[in-house]
Design brief:
It is built from 14 helices and two strands, in the order ααββαααααααααααα. It is an all-alpha fold and about 290 residues long. It has a two-stranded antiparallel sheet with strand order 1-2. Helix 11 packs antiparallel against helix 14 and helix 13 packs antiparallel against helix 14. It is globular, with a radius of gyration of 24 Å.
């Protein structure tokens, strides 16, 4: 081994800058947000210390509780619909022998498109008069089938979820597909010799072996849906009638529109605590041993 690699200062030189950046852009903002949450402050005048009043106010804030419910709805949809869909599509692509690279690239293309572009694109597709979706519905059932996708409180959140799934599902497909293709062929051949094939092979062989990747997908989904912001902000800005309001959009409105930076910081701290708690619970429930081939 080279002398430089035996020197502990070599490793410190690489680790310390990363820790400093992590502390600057993650640890420090969390601490400052908690401190600001203890004050009543509009960002201009002097801060007034009010203790934990901002945090207790969250429990009585109907809008915050509704936004939390919308985040949970966002998360539930992604876990119940997106994850199984990702697994099934990954299985289907893994069975393809020709043009597999094309399919992998095709499903991944939406991932590299910016969220703002996706939001604007689906806003055009959802347009009542000229949107593709309503045009297709009119062709099938007439004018009565057309819908106000983003203006209807009962359809707005579902419309956003579809757009979000279209953009992000490709990333998870690539992860899951890599895990499936990494399973040694000998395992599949042994399963076929034992009479396990088709759906049973997927259920009893493939699914258990890709559980670690599925667990990573669950963690990313939970953390991502609890702090979702940009696609909601651009498509509906939390409307109509707060039907798509999520914690992050509500935090922005409180902090920068109502100029209640103390209460906005309390909302941000609540988001952090809820996200950490949910991922911790999921880790305990889904704890599994590493799979060895």
């Amino acid at each position: 081994m080279k002398p430089a690699l035996r020197n502990p200062w070599t490793y410190i030189a690489f680790v310390v800058p990363t820790l400093l950046l992590y502390s600057l852009f993650f640890v420090y903002p969390v601490i400052v947000s908690f401190i600001y949450g203890l004050y009543r402050w509009d960002g201009v005048s002097a801060k007034a210390f009010i203790g934990i009043d901002n945090f207790t106010r969250l429990l009585d804030d109907a809008t915050f509780l509704k936004s939390l419910g919308n985040n949970i709805y966002f998360m539930a949809f992604s876990l119940i619909v997106n994850i199984p869909l990702v697994f099934l599509i990954s299985i289907a692509i893994s069975k393809v022998r020709r043009m597999r690279g094309f399919y992998k690239s095709a499903v991944f293309i939406p991932v590299v498109i910016s969220t703002a572009t996706v939001a604007i694109l689906f806003g055009v597709l959802y347009d009542y008069d000229s949107g593709l979706f309503n045009q297709a519905l009119r062709a099938v059932g007439g004018e009565s089938w057309a819908r106000e996708w983003l203006s209807n409180p009962h359809l707005a959140m579902l419309s956003i979820l579809i757009a979000n799934a279209w953009q992000n599902i490709g990333f998870f497909i690539v992860l899951c597909l890599a895990a499936i293709l990494n399973i040694p062929k000998e395992i599949g051949e042994a399963a076929k010799i034992d009479g396990v094939d088709g759906w049973n092979e997927t259920r009893f062989v493939t699914l258990p072996l890709v559980r670690p990747i599925l667990f990573v997908m669950l963690l990313l989904t939970v953390s991502g849906t609890l702090k979702v912001l940009d696609i909601v902000q651009i498509m509906t800005n939390g409307g109509p009638f707060q039907s798509t309001e999520v914690m992050s959009t509500y935090m922005l409105k409180v902090g920068f529109r109502s100029m209640e930076l103390g209460y906005g910081s309390a909302i941000g701290v609540a988001m952090f605590i809820i996200t950490m708690a949910m991922t911790g619970i999921l880790h305990r429930i889904s704890r599994t041993e590493e799979v060895h081939f």
